[in-house]
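agent> Task received from the user: take the single chain below, predict its 3D structure, and emit structure tokens. No templates, no multimer pairing.
agent> Plan: (1) validate residues, (2) run structure prediction, (3) serialize to tokens, (4) report one or two observations.
agent> Step 1 OK, no nonstandard residues flagged.
tool_call: predict_structure(input=
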Amino acid sequence: MNTNEILQAQALDIVFDGRNKAYGAYELRKTYHQRLAKGLAVMLGTCLSVVIVTAWANNHAQQPLTINLGQEVILSKVDEPKVDPVIEKPKPQATPPEPVRQIAYTNFNIVPNDADIPPIADVDDLDKARIGAINVDGGADDGRIAPPVESGTGTGNSGTPAFADNDDGTIFTTVQIEAQFPGGLSAWKKFLERNLNRDLPLDNGAPVGRYTVVVSFVVDKYGQISDVQAENNPGFGTMEEAVRVILKSQQWTPAVQNGRNVTYRQKQSITFVVSEEG
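)
tool_result: status=success, residues=278
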């Protein structure tokens, strides 16, 4: 390299003057700044992507599940219309049977000749009458025995048990112990957390608010549920979702009345909450 070339050459060319530039070291040093710039660009792009993804995830995070453990979840009671008590009509008095002709039995005693002797009944009369202590006028005896005549006006039990086992299909609406989900309220909350699609009203465009669905269903004395139906429809798919969850619960603890499991019409409230977050 002559003097003029040295003045115009870069330091890298002066260092590698007369050396093997094709070996690789020359090329690495010559493109060092370009590779450094590319590395910095990739690193900055990666960091920026992480920041953007994190911010987006925070803005679109799922809403926290809100389950009302008050009146919306507990077993609510419904005021039933008052039923006037049934007044039993007094039973008609049994008509006493027609008196049957009766002839007094005659004891044969030895008496003085002037004593008052009652007449002796004829044999033909004895065939048509009953033998008793006194004479009674009436119809001929046909051999039947009259039933006893009921006395008094009591209202005792006529043979029907006081508490039926509702095998006749009776569905109770008021009981001493209501039906409940196995495990109680805490187990019911966990069941809803696992199975209830709480974001359904938000996905269907529901505005901010609370959407309560009252579901009515029958729990038989074996704990099986049936006849599931919603009594109201707040919209946005909440009615269908509430009915679906109740059907999924399947087995309940049956209601109890007078120490026996009975079939009971259960009412259960499920509340969806749409908040301003998200």
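agent> Step 4: summary for the user.
The CA atoms of residues 69 and 186 lie 9 Å apart.
agent> Done.
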